[in-house]
Design a protein that fits this description.
The protein is of the alpha/beta class. It contains 17 helices and 21 strands. A hairpin with a 2-residue loop joins strand 15 and strand 16. The two termini are about 20 Å apart.
Length: about 550
């Protein structure tokens, strides 16, 4: 990425929208700047302190007075997209990232029509349609079926907590959760924003009921919280047991300090998971209910249910049990450690740049096809079918693809491998045994990543595996006449032209070579067969920012 590569962030923060969307896109902006990119923040924020916080990240800030659906919102956004496109030049790309339920399909369509790529940070998959290059949903347990019918084939879905957008300081605190005390005595209370139900006071009442010696509590409060006065008075009369943290500048450090936390089921869930802080969470709004449930299902937190139904007695009982149950806290810590590693924003940026053709080779993984690849694979080839061979151009209906995919996973006569970058499939290769001695090859590299040698890598790295798995002696490729890139890849990897044939009315070249093992072509190594990408360069980026 050149230093001028631009990213426009669009999110709002006030009593109506809260600050969660803003915090997420700010984390994305920090990761973008770590790769040398320029960041512009467009937003409606209620506090000058928040504006200053945005500027302190190095982003430029432009206020939005009237939000979408008011036409002023799109007019201002269009102006800056046009400005950045002019600065980027004819070969440059502009990205826009939006977070907020009010940025509907009309807004998204307009942004893409203005010439910007678009990332939509989503929570619930509740919109009728998403028109974006990337849709990001960082909830655990989400899969593509929940977006069925509301995204197009040109939309890539980034789903799951591995893409959680967190401030880079959080990664510094991941290694600190080394010991689990027999009894938890440090409690963090984090209900953020205005806390309209005054859940902080309810949590303090629960803390005061606990018969645990030496128990201490810290309460995170924001300037918009109307209950700060009463909370402060409670702290003054607590004999040092309660401490208020106004507008915490190091939320990651406060979470790492705590043995347990009581929090809203908002963005704090991913932050607590990253710091491996055992937690009780409650949904303070309907949109948080599925977040609390998914975190509990992942084993990282305990869901107390909707806040409107939560009593002080219920909160106190749950807190008492968690404080005294070291094994339960250890299980939460382990689940959280496996769920969120703090490098999600860097992963998302790597995918965004890959769509523009900029690849970090060390983050590319070559692995066998997996059950979760069904729909990502279908989206990878909107204009080229893997269901026959690489010379077919007929689009494949979803139901037919699903049947085909299931058959290929189970058959002994075919093998498929994919090149993936943090969940984005960059390339795919398939071997089909057509007789006792021969396997035919089909491969495809996504358009934005061509001319990078990935086709050559796919063939070179997998052909010996295919020979062993399928028990063949010869490999054959059928390439449509005019597909010079594929022909060159096969010639470069030891295939020889063996003749011509007509397939589906198209003239094709055939290439063949022996499948017998030989020393591989010397290429920079790809990481192979890893179940999930290691932090690698992502962790380095995040640590530099932190």
């Amino acid at each position: 990425m050149t230093r001028s590569a631009p990213l426009i962030l669009r999110a709002d923060a006030d009593l109506q929208f809260g600050a969660g969307h803003l915090v997420r896109v700010m984390a994305l902006g920090a990761a973008w700047r770590a790769r040398g990119g320029r960041v512009l923040f467009l937003g409606s924020v209620a506090s000058p302190a928040v504006e200053q916080q945005i500027r302190e990240t190095g982003a430029e800030f432009v206020p939005i007075g009237r939000r979408h659906p008011h036409p002023d919102d799109l007019a201002i956004t269009f102006r800056y997209i046009a400005q950045m496109r002019a600065e980027a030049g004819p070969s440059g790309t502009v990205w826009t990232a939006v977070a907020g339920r009010h940025f509907d399909a009309d807004f998204q369509t307009a942004i893409r029509a203005a010439g910007s790529r678009l990332l939509v940070a989503d929570d619930l998959a509740e919109a009728e349609h998403y028109n974006a290059d990337l849709v990001l949903n960082q909830r655990p347990g989400f899969d593509e079926r929940q977006y069925s019918g509301c995204v197009g084939r040109d939309t890539t879905l980034l789903l799951g907590a591995r893409y959680a957008l967190l401030h880079p300081t959080f990664i510094r605190y991941r290694p600190l959760r080394a010991e689990v005390p027999e009894v938890a005595r440090r409690v963090l209370i984090a209900f953020g924003g205005a806390d309209p139900m005054d859940l902080s006071s309810k949590a303090l009442a629960a803390v005061e009921r606990l018969p645990i010696a030496g128990l201490r509590a810290r309460v995170l409060v924001e300037a918009s919280n109307p209950h700060t006065g009463s909370l402060r008075a409670r702290a003054r009369h607590s004999g040092g047991q309660i401490e208020l943290i106004d507008h915490a500048t190091n939320g990651a450090g406060e979470m790492a300090w705590a043995d347990v936390a009581i929090a809203a089921a908002d963005g704090a869930c991913w932050e607590l998971a990253c710091t491996q802080t055992p937690a009780l969470v409650t949904a303070t709004a309907p949109g948080q209910i599925p977040i609390a449930r998914s975190m509990a299902q992942a084993g990282a937190m305990l869901d107390l249910g909707p806040a409107r139904l939560l009593t002080t007695s219920r909160m106190a009982a749950a807190l008492k049990n968690l404080c005294r149950d070291a094994e339960a806290r250890a299980r939460q810590i382990e689940a959280a450690r496996n769920l969120v590693d703090g490098a999600g924003a860097a992963r998302v940026v790597a995918v965004m740049r890959a769509l523009d053709g900029e690849l970090a080779t060390e983050d590319i993984v070559l692995r066998p096809l997996e059950p979760t690849d069904c729909w990502p694979l279908w989206r990878t080839k909107p204009d080229l079918s893997l269901h026959t061979t690489a010379h077919s151009t007929d689009p494949i209906p979803p139901d037919e693809h699903r049947r085909w995919f299931g058959e290929k996973l189970l058959t002994d006569s075919a093998r498929i491998w994919v090149l993936a970058l943090h969940g984005l499939i960059l390339g795919v290769i398939r071997y089909d045994r057509v007789d006792d001695a021969t396997a035919e090859i089909s491969f495809h590299v996504v358009r934005s990543c061509r001319r990078r040698g990935l086709g050559t890598r796919l063939i070179t790295e997998t052909r010996n595996w295919a020979r062993e798995a399928l028990g063949v002696e010869r490999l054959r490729a059928v390439v449509r006449v005019g597909n010079e890139a594929s022909a060159r890849a096969f010639l470069k990897t030891g295939f020889q032209e063996a003749g011509r044939r007509t397939v589906r009315g198209r003239e094709c070249l055939t290439f063949e070579r022996s499948a017998l093992p030989e020393a591989p072509i010397a290429l920079p190594a790809l990481r192979l067969f890893e179940p999930a990408p290691a932090l690698g360069s992502l962790e380095a980026d995040a640590r530099r920012l932190g």
